[in-house]
Structures are given as C-alpha cells and as structure tokens.
Amino acid sequence: MQDLQVDPEKDPVLARALVGALRDEWRPAADAMRSAHEWERRAYITLTLAAAARRRVEWLRKWLKARPGDADATAVHHAMESLDGQ
C-alpha cells in the first residue's frame, strides 16, 4: 500500500479521489466509495484511501466534519487507524 499510484486510464474514479486527497478535497473520495458495489472493490478503495489519509489526513477530517456519521468516511477512518496500528 505504500505505492499510491493509480493509472487514471484504468481507474479514473480512484485516481480522481487520490488527486482530491492531495488537494484536501473529500468529495472525490466519497464518490469513489459510493461507486464501489462489490466487496473486493470496496475494500481496495477503502484501503487505498486510508493509506492516502495516513500521508495527508486533512481531507478525511473535512469529510468527517461535513458528513458526521457517514459510513464510508467512517470506514476509511477506521482503516487508516488500523494501518497506523501496524
């Protein structure tokens, strides 16, 4: 998970989310999470966003503040905490 490079042609939704995280924008991450309908895809997006939040957490804080109780934001937050516990 250390390499957060995502091919924008193969995964434009997740690539936008990671660029958004660099800009402290949470909406692209919310869109990416909402787009994940299969469990495997959802887990991949959650863990990738959690790794991005470990590097730059402000966008996640903004998301949690803007949408208290949002299950997707909470999942990313808990995954980030889990990664921090490694």
Oligomeric form: single chain
Instruction: Output the radius of gyration.
Output: 11 Å
Major sheet attributes: none
Q: How far do the termini sit from each other?
A: 12 Å
Keyword list:
86 residues
Q: Please, could you describe this protein's structure?
A:
The structure is a single chain. The model has no long low-confidence stretch (mean pLDDT 92). The chain is an all-alpha fold. Helices cover 70% and strands 0% of the residues. Helix 1 (12-22) runs antiparallel to helix 2 and helix 1 (12-22) packs parallel to helix 3 (39-55). It has helices spanning 12-22, 27-35, 39-55, 58-66, 71-84.
Give the topology, please.
Blueprint: H1 12-22, H2 27-35, H3 39-55, H4 58-66, H5 71-84
Helix pairs in contact: 1-2, 1-3, 2-3, 3-5
In short:
With 86 residues, this protein is mostly helical. The protein is built from five helices and no strands.
